[in-house]
Design a protein that fits this description.
Length: 487
């Protein structure tokens, strides 16, 4: 079993050089994209008291932000294909900064939904998709390692932002904290400046190379035979992916994971407090998880890049999901703070493994050329379980008055998704091998038929040649006789 064949893009990725600077920029961009919605929960209690909102209403801020970040995938992919990753990430950083600054002047929860949830979510979406796409342009052989290092930005920034936001909240309040956070998020513009377009190392000019690798050909209806704009627009939300068996399997398993992935993070501190843990100690559980996750992601990238794991990366992804879900199933047994710390460590390991592989597995299935459109379609579909997961978990807490049902639900859904991926990948690879064998048989049969036709034609030619020679000889003899008679 081997991964999807590499795309023929006309050049060999550098797998290093300036690509590591691109990974660093993606590390910053992806770090803000994934950590900001989680770290904002530190401000929720004070916002709730200031604006007079309920806890469930406050929790929708992060849910909307995450959902918009995922739903904006196709738009982000379209912009990346049209303009390249650099301007898209810079624009996303500006939107994130503006969203936090304007939210600091908010006087209603609906205003925060719009500023943080919608504007900020759109900015994070631009940052995320553009960063993932540019990595696939710079790396092929070392791509799992590069993705692992870039995705490690999420736990690094979560570990950093959680105590920083707590410090800012104590000194400047939630409004001043959002204002400062907006200024910090402008660093995404610097990260975007590092993402210079890929120039293939052959005789194409720089402008042609950039157009080939980063940008599609501009729409020009005057040129006869050129593809029209509507057809090109379909490439950004390409429904033909649903004909791909591997993509369908990946999408179903991934949606099940996303549904149960974020609720334990949102409610971990509240669960710890309900078990009698001090508020500051409960808040540090997220930092512990982020700290562990910080090392697990690049480590997972190294393991996934090994010769033994790389061809079986889809199975490795299934194992990571099952491990992550099993951690949630045992969480209700963790009553004391040391046991909750152990749960946070295991949670960080499982969460880091999954997110180090989640986009690499999609690249493995779709290839570099189809990945930008595929990731856009995946993220817009994932926005629905992303939006509904935490509220559904909170509803269980409201109904039963106990957090353990929340962890049981999330763990069961994730484990089921991991087992589904494992079983269906076994089936998919078996069918691929069967289809490949059938195709080879057809090719062999056609080649044998062609050889038989060629041999038959050669035999006919051999039979025809003597008859033709005898006929020519007879015609020559008759010609000589006529000449003698004439003389």
């Amino acid at each position: 079993m081997s991964p999807a064949p590499a795309d023929v893009v006309g050049y060999k990725p550098l797998d290093g050089g300036w690509g590591w600077m691109v990974v660093f920029g993606a590390h910053i961009s992806i770090g803000f994209a994934y950590s900001t919605p989680k770290a904002l929960s530190i401000f929720f209690k004070e916002i709730q008291e200031d604006l007079g909102a309920s806890y469930s209403a406050i929790a929708w801020i992060s849910s909307i932000m995450l959902a918009v970040m995922y739903a904006g995938g196709p738009v982000s992919s379209a912009l990346v294909n049209r303009f390249g990753s650099r301007p898209v990430v810079i624009s996303g950083g500006l939107m994130c900064g503006v969203s936090m600054v304007t939210a600091s002047y908010g006087s209603s929860i609906v205003y925060l939904y719009f500023c943080i949830g919608i504007i900020g979510g759109c900015g994070l979406s631009l940052n995320l998709n553009a960063s993932l796409t540019i990595i696939s342009k710079y790396f092929l052989a070392r791509r799992p390692l590069a993705n692992g290092l870039a995705m490690a930005g999420s736990p690094v920034f979560l570990c950093f932002l959680a105590p920083v936001n707590q410090y800012l909240l104590g000194h400047f309040g939630w409004r001043g904290s959002l204002l400062i956070l907006g200024g910090m998020m402008l660093n995404c513009c610097v990260a975007g400046a590092l993402m210079r377009p890929v120039t293939p190392p052959h005789k194409l000019s720089s402008s042609e190379a950039q157009m080939k690798v980063e940008q599609p050909i501009e729409c020009n209806t005057k040129i006869k035979g050129e593809e029209g704009c509507p057809k090109k627009a379909k490439k950004f939300v390409d429904l033909s992916f649903f004909k791909d068996r591997g993509f369908i399997i990946y999408l179903i398993g991934n949606m099940m994971y996303i549904f149960g992935a974020y609720a334990p993070i949102v409610f971990l501190s509240a669960y710890a407090i309900s078990q009698g843990v001090e508020e500051y100690s409960a808040a540090y559980l997220l930092s512990i998880m982020g700290f562990v996750d910080m090392f697990v992601r690049p480590g997972t990238g190294l393991i996934a890049n090994s010769k033994w794991i790389r061809p079986r990366i889809q199975y490795f992804f299934s194992f990571a999901m099952v491990f992550n879900g099993a951690c949630h199933l045992v969480c209700p047994l963790m009553k004391s703070y040391p046991l909750l710390v152990a749960y946070a460590v295991l949670f960080g390991v499982g969460f880091g493994m999954v997110f180090a592989l989640i986009f690499e597995c999609l690249m493995d299935l779709m290839g570099n050329q189809r990945f930008p459109s595929a990731v856009g379609l995946v993220t817009i579909i994932e926005c629905f379980p992303m939006l509904l997961g935490p509220p559904a978990a909170g509803l269980l807490v409201d109904v039963f008055g106990d957090y353990k049902y929340l962890f049981f639900m999330c763990g069961t859904v994730i484990v089921t998704g991991g087992l589904f991926l494992f079983v269906m990948n076994v089936y998919s690879y078996h069918m691929l091998e069967k289809e490949r064998t059938a195709k080879l048989r057809q090719q062999d049969q056609k080649s044998m038929e062609n050889q038989e036709q060629m041999s038959t034609s050669e035999a006919q030619i051999e039979i025809t040649e003597p008859e033709t020679a005898e006929l020519n000889t007879g015609q020559q003899d008759a010609g000589l006789e006529d000449t003698e008679r004439a003389n």
